[in-house]
């Protein structure tokens, strides 16, 4: 949905009644929520977000989770200033931090952390920094406990359920293009991955839920990570889902729209070693044996979800052009093929 500057300023003024908008930059990196970096009078910056009512079934529960997680992280930083800064929600004079609208969406204003930058592809030094931050984030969440958060996305990372949804949506359909044929074939070939975590002892803790490289805030002129953002998907889940998704994203050096994606083994090694240095004890022995396969699983799962959304009329992910979800899906299946070309080497890079 498009919003004019005056419409954005009206939402801004719910949180900051005297706030005057001088510029708004839409963040193109988000697949779910709409996000704008706002520049206010006197040079202040803030982040305005419209949370998706299509994706998140209970936005009030999501905001309650956000308050719990950000308050916990802020308390950790108060005790130890070395801990990174994480986003915090603005409250208006009445103490409200969420604006609920008639269309079911919720708006919020959160703090801007900067000067910083987001990257859609990373190099080995940046992958090291991301792995270090993800391990630190996982450890920071451990004291919060499992019982304090609602599940913001029931069924998230349930690959078997995603397959069932695909089967229902695709029933009776045949490939209409070479790209669709690629996706149908990839899903048939990779179906067995859905049961990867059904056996063995695997760590389950509160995790980020979406640690793609675009959710790491990097310093403006350095490869250090300042923060990890987009905290709406924090939930109890397998740690391997988080680590596998981070590896999927950070090792795809071409990005999610690449025609010929490349899986970067150097990034894989750098991220795995950095995560291991800070969070090895979080993972079980079975987890450490499945790092490559967890990455394969998350590549498959995302390709499956993109393609299902394409067949279902693009209801879930935001698309920036016709056929975008199909292109994204093809990229993931090509990325899996690229990973498999280097599979033997990757399996030697254990934590």
TrEMBL record:
Domain of life: Bacteria
A Pfam family hit: APH
Signal sequence extent: none
SUPFAM superfamilies: Protein kinase-like (PK-like) (SSF56112)
Aminoglycoside phosphotransferase domain mapped to chain residues: 27-255
Official protein name in the record: Aminoglycoside phosphotransferase domain-containing protein
Species this chain originates from: Desulfobulbus oralis
């Amino acid at each position: 949905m498009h919003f004019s500057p005056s419409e954005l300023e009206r939402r801004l003024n719910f949180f900051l009644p005297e706030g005057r908008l001088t510029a708004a930059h839409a963040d193109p990196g988000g697949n779910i929520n709409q996000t704008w970096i706002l520049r206010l009078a006197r040079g202040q910056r803030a982040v305005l977000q419209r949370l998706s009512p299509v994706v998140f079934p209970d936005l009030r529960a999501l905001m309650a989770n956000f308050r719990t997680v950000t308050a916990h992280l802020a308390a950790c930083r108060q005790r130890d200033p070395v801990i990174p800064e994480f986003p915090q929600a603005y409250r208006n004079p009445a103490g409200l931090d969420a604006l609920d609208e008639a269309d079911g969406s919720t708006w919020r204003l959160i703090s801007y952390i900067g000067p910083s930058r987001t990257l859609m592809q990373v190099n080995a030094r940046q992958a090291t920094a991301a792995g270090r931050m993800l391990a630190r984030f996982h450890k920071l969440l451990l004291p919060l406990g499992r019982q304090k958060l609602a599940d913001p996305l029931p069924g998230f990372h349930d690959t078997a359920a995603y397959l069932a949804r695909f089967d229902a949506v695709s029933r009776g359909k045949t490939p209409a293009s070479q790209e669709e044929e690629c996706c149908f074939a990839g899903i048939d070939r990779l179906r067995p991955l859905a049961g990867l975590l059904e056996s063995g002892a695997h760590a389950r803790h509160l995790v980020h839920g979406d640690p793609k490289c675009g959710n790491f805030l990097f310093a403006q002129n350095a490869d250090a990570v300042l923060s990890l953002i987009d905290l709406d998907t924090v939930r109890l889940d397998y740690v391997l889902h988080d680590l596998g998704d981070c590896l999927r994203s950070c090792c795809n050096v071409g990005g999610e729209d690449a025609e010929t994606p490349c899986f970067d083994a150097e990034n894989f090694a750098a991220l795995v070693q950095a995560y291991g240095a800070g969070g090895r004890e979080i993972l079980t022995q079975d987890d450490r044996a499945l790092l490559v396969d967890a990455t394969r699983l998350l590549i498959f799962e995302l390709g499956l979800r993109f393609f299902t959304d394409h067949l279902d009329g693009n209801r879930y992910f935001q698309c920036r052009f016709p056929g975008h979800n199909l292109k994204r899906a093809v990229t993931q299946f090509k990325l899996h093929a690229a990973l498999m070309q280097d599979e033997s080497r990757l399996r030697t890079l254990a934590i």
